[in-house]
Amino acid sequence: MYYVTQGLVERHSPILPPDEARALAIPRGxxxxxxxxxxxxxxxxxxxxxxxxxxxxxxxxxxxxPTYSEYLTRMAVTVLPAIATAACAVxxxxxxxxxxxxxxxxxxxxxxxxxxxIAWPYARAFWSEPLATLSLLLGVWCxxxxxxxxxxxxxxxxxxxxxxxxxxxxxxxxxxxxFGVYLLAGAFRADGRPPWLRAxxxxxxFGLGGLLPAVALATYDFxxxxxxxxxxxxxxxxxxxxxxxxxxDPLVGLCGLLLSPGKSVFLYAPPVLAGVLALPVFWRRAHxxxxxxxxxxVSQIALVAPLTFWAGDSAWGPRYMVxxxxxxxxxxxxxxxxxxxxxxxxxxxxxxxxxxxxxxxTVGNASNPHTYIFExxxxxxxxxQQRWFEPLASPxxxxxRQLLQRAAEYVRPMPSGTLAAGAGFYPPDGVEHRWPRxxxxxxxxxxRPSQSGPVTLRLELIQPEPTSMRPMPGLALSxxxxxxxxxxxxxxxxxxxQYALQxxxxxxxxxxxxxxxxxxxFQAQGIDPSSxxxxxxxxxxxxxxxxxxxxxxxxxxxxxxxxxxxxxHHWDRSTFGWFYDPAMPQLxxxxxxxxxxxxxxxxxxxxxxxxxLAVIVLGWRLVVLLRFSRSSSQPVGLAVWLVVAATFVxxxxxxxxxxxxxxxxxxxxxxxxxxxxxxxxxxxxxxxIAWTYRVVLGREPDVDGWLAYxxxxxxxxxxxxxxxxxxxxxxxxxxxxxxxxxxxxx
Length: 746
Known about the structure:
Elements: H1 2-10, H2 18-23, H3 45-49, H4 51-64, H5 69-77, H6 79-98, H7 103-116, H8 119-122, H9 129-149, H10 152-168, H11 176-186, H12 195-209, H13 211-225, H14 239-245, H15 250-258, H16 265-268, H17 271-277, H18 279-285, H19 287-304, H20 325-329, H21 333-336, H22 344-366, H23 369-375, H24 384-389, H25 395-411, E1 418-421, E2 437-438, E3 442-448, E4 453-462, E5 476-479, E6 482-484, E7 489-495, E8 498-508, E9 513-518, E10 522-523, H26 524-527, E11 536-537, E12 540-546, E13 553-554, H27 573-580, H28 591-597, H29 609-628, H30 634-666, H31 682-696, H32 703-710, H33 716-725, H34 727-732
Parallel strand pairs: 1-13
Antiparallel strand pairs: 1-3, 2-12, 3-9, 4-8, 4-12, 5-6, 5-9, 7-8, 10-11
Helix pairs in contact: 4-5, 6-7, 6-9, 6-29, 7-29, 9-10, 9-11, 10-12, 10-13, 11-12, 11-19, 13-30, 18-19, 22-25, 31-33
């Protein structure tokens, strides 16, 4: 979805370049249009709504450092799920008020939803679940208003919202039967009007409302894939695709979603259990609404349980259950408004579940779930079953343990007689050794002598010399803020570009000291165009040691290198690894932390407080509105209808802009060939691809290989890396025998 947003802004087209398509694992054959171009298999609403946020991130990046543009735009678009989640809390409070909750009960319910359930972690990620949840919840709220007030207009908006939810996530289509049953049940409310007339009026509004998103989605699919039923997810391929997608064991999926230690909705959102227990009391207050909640829950679980990917990894908890969480919490209004008559045991149990939920979401927000998932073999790797069904391997336990361990590492002082590479050093090039290590141009060596006295530091380093021979390295040293002059250095040059330094640091205490190494920076791609190393490099430290009198052993300290960025491939695997690699000692998974470590100006970290301030201001406004609504519902109704209207207008604009972008781009895009035969420009390019496939994988490229790599910008070295990183490449061991040349065509 982010790539579509980027494409609409930068290329004025939702067509995905092959490089981005490979990042989405699309080359398997899905989401390729009849024109040979790649398209995202997801709905366009979220991508288009994120355009203003994308432009905001780009606007911030331009005056600071344009190479960080994609990093900051990715950060900016994640604000959209946060806005959607906050709006969900507002609509849930209004829905609670519609079924009879007091202002205090409605506000309490909204706070429980926002702080003690899985909604909070998902508010930080660019998944489609928060926006789909908002659309579904608006649909439920409008349906309740339409049923209780016999309003065809409200049912029209309810259908429109459900349609938008289905356009955002196709699984929301399964909710339509539940709304139909609720419509019929509401038609028999006694108000003097014949039930058949009520049902006809409301059904007319509900039927008309869904036409607009249905027609827009059908048009969008037809333009992309040549069929109004093909959304790019493979379902249009018939029974074979259905068996592949719904080929899982429903009992396993049901057990996983409800009872497993790694994916149970009751563990990741504990207050939901209280909502389920409160359902009988809620039934006595609102029969029809209890039925609606039950049917919506059953429809979604029945759809998700038989999926082969029911777990929804990589994600925190049961991703496909997120839209159900606010609905399962709604019955709590019956408990919250009856608090005076509840037993102390019941109130304590509810408080305990809310407290447990707050703890779970704190862990989920502070730790990156992808790190543990990648550490255990990936979303569907060898450790998936253990993550889902073994209590000690559950992400709840593992993420909490990782968070505590890393926090302890950051506060633990260095032991006496130790030396370590601190901030500014990249991870070592060798897995089993701490050296050599590249710096990013500003790196610090941390050491703590075993005793006070004179200290001499020995450094062996490399600094490339692309233009001229240097008598000494381009390096500045600063010890605890004090410059170490070159007169205290003794320099030897074993080879061009290589230096051996003995640096007299003077008399030092046995406390911890920090030596800052500052050097000019370069990118390997600027020296060697075939390099795929995007990092900004300073000097490479081959070895570091202290003199024998205060000899120090090497230890590891947590140090995050700055974000690696490339001028050609701005968001490659090394950049993803900076966030998710288990070897990268990120302390917490929050954007202010990433901003402080990325190499950008530290003041940007304060941007992370802007959404928090907005939530506080808007939350207080909601309290005022709900209190005022006891005497007049006009302000609340006006506010919510403005939300509905804004969502409606934005969605219509999203559909129009996206379909128009496809139609315009279809005339300008040149489709990559489905086969290299008969394409004159393919001679060298295709020969290189074929040669690389033969050397790395021992076979000819398949059709997907041609589509993916022919029109890409990858050179031979980068293509080798791509193939070596594949499952097949790792199995074959990536045995390379030479480099590409034109003579290899024969």
